[in-house]
Amino acid sequence: MKEQEVECRLGCGACCIAPSISSPIPGMPNGKAAGERCIQLNEENLCKIFGQPDRPAVCSQFKADREICGVTNAHAMTVLIELETLTF
User: Fold this and answer.
1) Which Pfam families does the entry link to (predicted)?
2) List of residues 6+ apart from 72 with CB closer than 8 A
3) Residue 28 domain flag
4) Using one digit for the tens of pLDDT, what is the confidence trace for 33-70?
5) Number of folded domains in the chain?
6) Structural domain boundaries, residue 25
């Protein structure tokens, strides 16, 4: 039985804030630190470069996951901060 795919919660933004990104992002040539809001995240917590070729591969490859994203934005932020801490 195939597990049902989890849809990204539009406006969450946890994956654009909590983890560090070491690759260049348009407007952030050195990437971003953990906990730093990505410059490409708009006021509604949506990616301004979603689907564009200059979006970092690490961002494009991230897929929503029930274990990571949970059912609330706060849960997603907590889990992603914990994962960042464990992998630092």
Assistant:
1) CxxCxxCC (PF03692)
2) none
3) yes
4) 999 999 999 999 999 999 999 999 999 999 999 999 99
5) 1
6) 14-86
